[in-house]
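User: tokens in, sequence out, please.
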């Protein structure tokens, strides 16, 4: 995944001695692969478990653990807290949470936490479920939240001690999505955005179906970017291999075009911006078989037309609502796109050339042309997240 809002930022990772410490090594490794400016602080107990050299090697960065490692006027906790644009404490033990929540400052991690005056601070509690549900721990988390910390809730599942419950270290991508949220402008706050993504699936019988090659990546990146910029996003997705972006409030999985139509029409009523990036199948099976078809059956598939969801949304469009369509074309891009723009009463249409292997379906990259009335905006080949950000900048400048 790409995290444009972390680029050129100074990121400080605080590591305490939770059993999930090995996952923090992966977090540091991920950040290093992005070429970010990194520094790590470890508690004394964390250092007893994983060597500081591991973090230093994996992160290609300095690792600190002593408050008293003062050199030439360089005071670790004030310098590190001043240097960092973003402070992530992961994993955060019950102990470190208790100490930070009441302002204790008796080691480098807690002293840095108390000296860190920016809002961009994340904490990732991970522990046994009974520790997590403990009243004191919950009370301490509430205090941290009130003090401006963003808390990433642990996941439910198998815990290191064999128990099952809430307390697992979350996926590092989830942590980084929240990190980006703290650093990114909020120009779509209070806007309701509805996005469709992925392919639709039309069943032939209980085990077979027809679909298309849409991966959903473009729609998911648009959803991720809008949510990062403060929008209240509903993502309606056909079946994909992707994980829903963590900041998307409402994720609705669907299968067929008819399912997607129902959801899109319902949610469109309250949406300020609607983007149809899903590749809706044009046809569905007319003679669906409730029983599995046999190999020896002579198979003739009868197809019937699916609803044109984009057209329907255009007809229902209310004043001040922005409706954006996508067109996947292999030829005559401009002509087809402009026709669609007008006929479906869109405000904007985004065209990508799906005949090219290096962009479009399945690829992480795309190259698109945006058409609105009397305007054409070409976006050079780039990661879909960057294309999403540029499209959203354009929407903001043109309509907001
Ligand atoms: C095997 C083992 C696993 C532990 N895992 C956790 C954990 O996941 N979360 C937690 O809050 N504490 C855990 N602890 C307890 C902390 O390591 C302990 O409270 C320690 O004093 C915290 O020190 P620190 O916060 O300075 O790193 C664990 C302890 C042991 C021995």
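Assistant: Sequence out:
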């Amino acid at each position: 995944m790409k995290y444009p809002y972390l680029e050129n930022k100074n990121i400080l990772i605080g590591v305490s001695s939770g059993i999930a410490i090995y996952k923090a090594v992966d977090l540091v490794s991920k950040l290093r692969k992005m070429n970010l400016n990194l520094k790590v602080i470890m508690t004394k107990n964390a250092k007893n478990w994983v060597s500081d050299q591991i973090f230093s090697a994996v992160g290609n960065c300095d690792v600190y653990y002593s408050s008293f490692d003062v050199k030439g006027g360089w005071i670790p906790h004030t310098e590190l807290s001043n240097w960092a644009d973003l402070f992530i404490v992961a994993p955060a033990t019950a102990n470190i949470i208790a100490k930070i929540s009441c302002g204790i400052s008796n080691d480098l991690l807690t002293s840095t936490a108390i000296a860190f005056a920016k809002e961009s601070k994340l904490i990732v509690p991970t522990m046994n479920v009974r520790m997590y549900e403990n009243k004191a721990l919950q009370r301490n988390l509430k205090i941290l939240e009130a003090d401006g910390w963003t808390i990433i809730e642990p996941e439910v599942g198998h815990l290191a001690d064999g128990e099952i419950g809430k307390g697992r270290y979350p996926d590092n991508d989830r942590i980084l999505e929240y990190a980006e949220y703290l650093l990114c402008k909020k120009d779509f706050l209070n806007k309701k955005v509805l996005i469709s993504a992925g392919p639709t699936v039309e069943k032939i019988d209980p085990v077979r179906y027809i679909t298309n090659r849409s991966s959903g990546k473009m729609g998911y990146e648009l959803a991720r970017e809008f949510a990062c910029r403060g929008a209240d996003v509903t993502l309606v997705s056909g079946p994909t291999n992707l994980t829903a972006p963590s900041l998307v409030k409402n994720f609705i999985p669907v299968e067929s075009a008819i399912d997607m139509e129902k959801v899109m029409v319902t949610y469109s009523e309250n949406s300020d911006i609607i983007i149809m990036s899903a590749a809706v199948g044009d046809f569905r099976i007319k003679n669906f078989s409730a029983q599995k078809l046999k190999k020896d059956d002579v198979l003739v598939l009868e197809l019937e037309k699916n609803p044109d969801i984009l057209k329907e949304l255009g007809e229902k469009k209310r004043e001040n609502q922005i409706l954006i369509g996508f067109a996947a074309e292999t030829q005559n891009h401009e002509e087809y796109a402009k026709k669609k723009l007008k006929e479906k009463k869109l405000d904007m249409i985004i065209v990508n050339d799906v005949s090219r292997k290096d962009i479009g379906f399945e690829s992480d990259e795309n190259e698109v042309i945006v058409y609105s009335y009397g305007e054409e905006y070409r976006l050079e080949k780039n990661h879909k997240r960057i294309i999403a950000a540029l499209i959203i900048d354009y929407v903001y400048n043109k309509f907001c």
